[in-house]
Structure formats: structure tokens, C-alpha cells
Amino acid sequence: MQVTELLAEGLKREYRVVLPAAELDAKATARLNEMQDKVRINGFRPGKVPVAHLKRLYGKSVLAEVIDQAVNEANSKIIDENGFRLALQPKVELPQDEAAVNEVIEGKADLAYTVGLEVLPKIEIGDLASITLDKPVLAVSDEDVEETVKRIAESNRPFSAKEGAAENGDRVTISFVGSIDGEAFEGGSGEDVPVVLGSNSFIPGFEEQLIGITADETRTVSVTFPEAYQAAHLAGKAASFEVTAKTIEAPGELSVDDEFAKSLGLESLEAMKEQVKSRIAQEHAAQSRNKVKRRLLDALDGLHQFDVPPSLAEQEFEGIWNSITSEMDTQKRSFADEGTTEEAARADYDKIAKRRVRLGLVLAEIGEKNNIQVSDDEVTRAVVERARQFPGQEQQVWEFYRKNAQALASLRAPIFEEKVVDYLLEQAKVTEVPVTREELYAEDEAEKAA
Prior knowledge:
Largest sheet: 5 strands, antiparallel
Radius of gyration: 33 Å
Structural class: alpha+beta
Low-confidence stretches: none
Mean pLDDT: 89
Helix content: 40-55%
Number of strands: 11
Number of helices: 13
Strand content: 15-25%
Shape: elongated
């Protein structure tokens, strides 16, 4: 085997490999010899078929298999001898000329091909003990519990039909059709939608204009969508809704006591409050974890600066870009609407993609060097949890993951990442800092991007 390096640029390598025809023929002959005892051909006793005859019948197909194996072995030798760790599978370019290919298959010519490699960079892990982080923490207050219990109670308040006009606090069941500049818009209509007047669950100004409406009455409600409305294509736009009231219901009395708790399947009001407190604490802990993890990743990014494999960065960028542009198409938004240009947006998301790849490589390196592993039991629990999200289809979900290695890897990866993060938080200097609810749940653009 002859190997000539054609390219050594950054993380890219390219080699020209020549596999001698004699070597390939010898391997093919050895394979045909192995076939003698297995092949059954009319006119020959078992094990007595001449190799020359087998070569006439199967020579080309056997040589094709030998070539495939020889190429893989040659590539593996290049990788092992150079100590490469690959970012992607080798890219092999075989001869394209049909005549040249036939000569190789017929054993008349050497096989010459090129193989392109993209290697992982050598990563020197920084001083993890030098990382200092503030971890925001928020205790669950009695006020939080009481407010949540009250909210649960309000959502379960009984209503009964009433005569006359709707008042603040009444529940009105409506059907509506919305339009902007005289044109109906997607998501702007609904049938038999209940709305409690004064709950502020609809667009600002919508509920107030329904006060005084009676059953079977139709009104035109004019509103303006907030500038920060979640559907960006509607943000800041004026709209009108033709609203018809189907029923008017008055709120009934609701006592927040043990009987109310029992109606929800709990033993007592105290037990309900404890459950609510536990759930809020879990939400706070999850948000705190998200914040400190973000700060940890920022610190890791600052400690490790190196070029990332171009193909991995490109794949990551394409995933991000397709998601962004698809969302913008759905919302009928342009880059100008976002206050930028496509060129500037591409540059920003390219940086994000490279950061994600770099951090992924750093986390993988730390995990490998510290023997952090994900057990089969942990993956199984993740599959079970995923299956529970699809009631009635648990068996199909289980079978999907059992037969799909790539899907299984998609569950293993986040478990591995969180275990590496746990390890890093143990190495870093983490200081708990009490914060307000507003501070804990505030989200900036950088956090969304990461």
C-alpha cells in the first residue's frame, strides 16, 4: 500500500492511496479458497470445485468485496498510525472512469483512490477549579403557595347559567372571527371558547368590551395586539373580532378548604399546600440549574478557544438556520422586521453554531477523561419516561427506540451532558445567591441563543 499526503490544512487531511492489484488478487484468491468447501455447483463434488472455475463465476463480485474491505483497512491504518480522532466518517473518492474501474475489478490495474478526513482538534482542558459561579436560589414563600392554591381554586370555581348581561367575573362562552384590514387571519377564530371576564386571559381590551353582552348577542370588538405578542406577525397590529356570546354564567361560591382539596383527590388542604410547595420548589430548582449551567458553559467557552471541525459547525449551523427561517416563514417575518439583515443573522448564528460544537467537544473530552458514563439502566429509564408521554402508544415507542440506535443515542446524549455538568459544578467554586422571582425567571437573548 502506498500512501501520499495531499492536504494537511487545519483539521482537514487528504491522502492518495494505491492498493496493488497483486495484493487485491491474493486476497480475492484467499477468499475463493475459503468458498471451496461452502459452494455447491452441479458436476463437482463438495470441496472439489477448482478455484479457477470459482474465479470465473464469482471473481468480480468477490474482488469487489475485497476492495471494499481493503479500502476500509487502509483508511483505518492511516487513522491509527497518525493518531487521528475523526469528526466524521472518511470521505472516499474512487475512480469514476468506467474503463479504469473495470480494469481494477478484473485485477488488471492497481486501485488508486483519495480519502478525505476531518479530524477532531487536540483539546487541552483548562483549570476547572478556577471557575467561579453564582447560583441563583429562591426559597418558596407562603405567599407563593397561597397564591398558587388560590389560582387552582379559581380554575375550578363552579359557574351556573344566568339571565341578563355579563358582568366582570362572569364566564362567557363565545364564538369569534378576527380580521386585520378586513382579511381573516390564521388563528383568529374560535368556536365555543369560554372566557372569564376580568381574567386578562385574552388580548388587552378584549374582555372589557364584552361587559354587558347578552346571550346570542353579536358585537364587534376592536383591539391592538401588544408589540411583544408571541405571534410576531401579529405584534402591534390592529384587529377587529366579530364576537357572538353563546352562554352567560355567573361564578358560584368556592371555599378553599379540606373538602375542596378532597375534590381534587388530595387528603386535605394542608396536603394540597405541601404538594404545591414541592412543585414550586422543583420549578425554582430547575430554573436555578438552567441559570448556573448557562454560566458554567460561558466559563468553559472562555477557557477553551480552538478551531472546530468545519463540517460539524456547518451541520450545526444548518440545523439552527433551518429552524429560524422556518419559524420566520410561519410568522411571515423578514430579517428587516427583526432589525437585521440575512448576512448579519448568518454571521451571528454561525458564531452560535461554532460555540455549540466547541462546547460539545469540551464536554465530551471532560467526560471521557473522567470516565463519566451513562448506564443502560439510565437510558432505559429515559425510554420509559418518553413512552409515558404517549398514552396508549407505549409499546410502539418502546419498540422504536429498541430498534433505532440513533434515536437511542439522542436520549443518551443529554443524560451524558448533565452528568458532565454535575461533575464540573463539583469542581467549580459555586456560591448560592438569593434572588427575587423576577431575577430568577428573567431571560436574556444570550440565554435563548445558547
